[in-house]
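Homework-ish question, so no full write-ups if that breaks the rules, but can someone show me the predicted structure for this set?
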Amino acid sequence: MSDEKDIRKAAAEIAFGEDLHAEEQEAKGAGASVRSGRKTAAQDAVEKVMKARSKERPVVTEYIDNIIEDAMYLAGDRCFAEDESVAGGIGLFRGLPVTFIGHRKGRDLEENIRCRFGMPNPEGYRKAIRLMKQAEKFGRPVIAFVDTPGAYPGKEAEERGQGQAIAECIKTMSRLCVPVVTVFTGEGGSGGALAFASGDRLIMLENSIFSILSPEGFASILWHDGSRWQEAAKVMKLTARDIKDLGVCDEIIPEPEPEEMHEKRFFDTVADTIWRNLGPLLSKDEGELVRDRYLKLRKTGSKYGRN
Amino acid sequence: MNPFKERKNILDAIGKITRLTFSTDEKAADVMKTCPGCGEKYGTGELAAAKYVCPSCGQYISMTAYERVSQIADEGSFREFNKARTGYDPIDFPGYEKKIQKMRKDTGLKEAVVTGSCTIGGEKAVLCVMDKRFMMASMGTAVGEKVFLAFEYAVKKKLPIVIFTASGGARMQEGIMALMQMARTSAAAARHDEAGLLYIAVMTDPTTGGVTASFASLADITIAEKGALIGFAGQRVIEQTIGEELPEGFQRADFQLEKGFVDMVAGRPELKDTIARILFIHGRRRH
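A: Not a homework solution, just the prediction itself:
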């Protein structure tokens, strides 16, 4: 395949060509600092991928338990099974009744395995759809947390319509008559992440990522070699900063040192940010809310940047 | 759009179709296609008459978007939308511009989907056809935009929409912006749905990844073309995950019918009649 060759060549340029280029410029004595600045950004992306996946970070349920008062977890998709990899339920957010959904990766190995490391089966998405529709019925805003490598690529997931479940989830969220605020807490890979991210506001933690596919998957598809994920991370533009520059992320929450991320002060910052983003949405009526969300999506990725 | 330009586009589109439908022997000789099943060679005219099913072995031969349009739309009825619409290179992916240029040259298409309005068996409809020759019909900003605009046009004109899906998924080279097209097209499909309008998806080989996980799975009536591969995750990835080989026929049209994700499996020769019949029934409902 000639495409493959092109991409391999391009990748080689990224991997090795940059240094050559930098030397060249150093020789010229100009622009070297710009070049090294850019190199740092690429290296930064690799570090951010590792940070986003770090076991030191709080898991989604920790955010839920610290931000939502009296969080009550609800189970099941009413079709097939309960999927623990999607945590969902109801509670009070600063006195306001809300519905929450999010990816559950698990805190220990046993839970990790039960949750397939935060990779939902179709049941997980169908449970989220059920809870979102319930939120709509009772006029509760939805707060969604994203931390997933992607949807689970299993045989049974396919048999039970993984694609259809994600499509319905995106569709439901994009047309929901109540406010939807999404927070990326760790990694957000592919349609599995997007399923919870087509709402009104998209907030990302400083070291969280949002990508079309996991860097491993990306490298595997384009270069047939998943081990080249670092090269992939460098070109994918997946850091919170990149996503904000592309106009997809609305706000970035700065992170303290990793150990301080488990402290109440940090959870308060996250809660403040959600509250601040939720406020203006609460004053909109249903029609306005859905229309504005549609107009926001209408603009996304259109090079003409209409509206 | 400038009315003259639009007229020109329309004329171009009609010209294209006419050429495909009545290709002379000389033209057809230029674009001989080989059947992947038996190796037999056919001219385009001959193949069009056989509905792109190999006359000697019955194998389906892949069609270009315009060939599909000429098979489905009533003769001369197709008016193409946004023919020149292109996407962009949102993440400055190395080598992407060059690759796109090459694709355009090889396929004669600007992007991986052809959209327009037409009549099918006399019923008006919006028609979108994805063309897998163009980077596996992966969905980037251009495909997303064209499908989105086709839905919007259908809503505005209160028309049903028929989409022939085929895709390797979201286009990696456009990064997160390609992923966001899943949200855009799904929202557009939802709005069309809320307007009480009919959406027919015809899933052709292969419909996978981000396209399956967005607009392709949101139709009122879903038809799978015989033998088509339809799924979310790629087979290689699934096999790596579960550590075993997948059974024969996994993710194929009949599998999806058995699992309840498509309404019917249709052979290529009956597709047009099937679509026309569905459109006819919906056109005759009480308002």
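Now go work out the reasoning yourself. Hint: Chain A touches chain B through 58 residues (CB under 8 Å).
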